[in-house]
UniProtKB/TrEMBL annotation:
The keyword Coiled coil applies. InterPro entries: VPS16, Vps16_C, Vps16_C_sf. Keywords: Coiled coil. This is Vps16 C-terminal domain-containing protein. One of its GO terms (cellular component) is HOPS complex.
Length: 369
């Protein structure tokens, strides 16, 4: 049987089984030597925390990086980057990180980490050279894509400008160094480096505007945050200043953040700050299931149930009811749809004997047994 046929069969069989992990099935496929099948099955897994580690163990580093960035989960992004760093040659890491503009945030996070933890730079091994306690050449591999041994004077100067911009406390000085670096990259015919530097400058300028207006309150400093963290904090600040949501949306649009990714960050931030009224206002492109699950994670089952009731697509609604353990509602829906697979799904996931009895009775009434 082809990989595509197996994936189609698994998807059909498990479409209502929300508690089943596709990553576990993918792991079995990988152990059986079906690497391509395992990768295809992992693409069905919605939980990035299960998806990314297995992709790394399979050697699918670039796919793991893409999935971790899509999840906006900083710990997963770092897990992926550090794993790549340990297992891949520096040139290969550089090639991956500079293959797509969307990886710029990963470069920023990695650079920020090593600047902040320079005292622990010995763990980088023989790849590291330090000057005044700061890590230089390893960061250059990521930020500039060029090893120090092979760079010419102008690019070396640009690299140094980029690196030292991270240590500058004054935003004007950061921008000045980055502007100089961008000019040198353009002169050296390195358009990707120049574009990434320009985008980082634009983000810094947006962050400075936010800090000047004290957008996040007295305890929040936006300058130096990643793009995702900037959007997340703005959404969280909407509890204090509702207009912050509009600012978050504008920044997401300016930096071309995919709509579904933006809404995942937004939903999580609003749920964390208990902004239920704001969540109610508009149907998101990622569907109400994501809303319901975010509420459940905050211990707000009542809010989660209200979002489940707003889902109109039958399969998605049933899947959400099972996820929320709303067994009676899920059973009623399965009976209404006269769907034996959905009845089986409720029975397999629900631990309550009285629900089992109702399912058996319904199955008899509908002629399934």
């Amino acid at each position: 049987m082809t990989d595509e046929a197996i994936v189609s069969m698994v998807r059909k069989k498990l479409k209502d089984a929300t508690l089943v992990s596709y990553s576990e099935i993918a792991s079995c496929a990988e152990r059986a030597g079906r690497h391509r099948l395992a990768t295809m099955l992992l693409d069905l897994e919605e939980n990035a925390s299960d998806q990314v580690p297995l992709l790394l163990s399979m050697g699918e580093f670039e796919l793991a990086l893409r999935k971790s960035l899509e999840s906006s989960h900083t710990d997963l992004i770092y897990l992926t980057l550090f794993h790549m760093e340990r297992t891949m040659p520096p040139d290969d890491v550089r090639r991956v990180l500079h293959s797509e503009p969307q990886y710029a945030e990963a470069i920023h996070l990695l650079a920020t980490f090593y600047i902040a933890t320079h005292a622990d730079s010995s763990k980088l091994g023989n790849h590291t050279t330090t000057r005044n306690g700061m890590v230089f050449d390893w960061l250059l591999i990521y930020i500039c894509g060029i090893c120090l041994d092979n760079i010419w004077h102008e690019v070396s100067s640009a690299n140094h400008d980029v690196l030292t911009s991270f240590t500058e406390r004054n935003t004007d000085e950061k921008l000045k160094k980055l502007k100089d670096a961008m000019a040198k990259y353009n002169s050296a015919k390195l358009p990707i480096n120049a574009k990434l530097t320009e985008e980082h400058m634009e983000l810094l300028m947006e962050q400075r505007k936010l800090d000047d207006k004290a957008t996040g309150g007295p305890n929040v400093v936006y300058v130096g945050m990643s793009l995702s963290d900037t959007i997340r904090h703005l959404c969280m600040d909407a509890a204090r200043e509702p207009k912050s949501l509009q600012v978050a949306a504008a920044i997401a649009k300016k930096f071309k953040v995919p709509e579904k990714r933006f809404y995942r960050v937004k939903i999580k931030a609003l749920a964390e700050t208990l902004q239920w009224d704001t969540l109610h206002k508009k149907a998101p492109p990622c569907g109400f299931k994501a809303f319901a699950i975010a509420c459940l994670h905050q211990g707000e089952k009542g809010q989660a149930e209200s979002y489940a009731s707003r889902i109109t697509q039958p399969d998605e609604k049933f899947d959400t009811l099972v996820h929320l353990q709303m067994w009676t509602a899920a059973l009623d829906m399965a009976v209404k749809l006269k769907d034996p697979d959905k009845l089986s799904s409720v029975r397999n996931n629900c631990p309550l004997p009285d629900i089992h009895a109702q399912i058996d009775h319904a199955a008899q009434q509908l002629g399934f047994i």
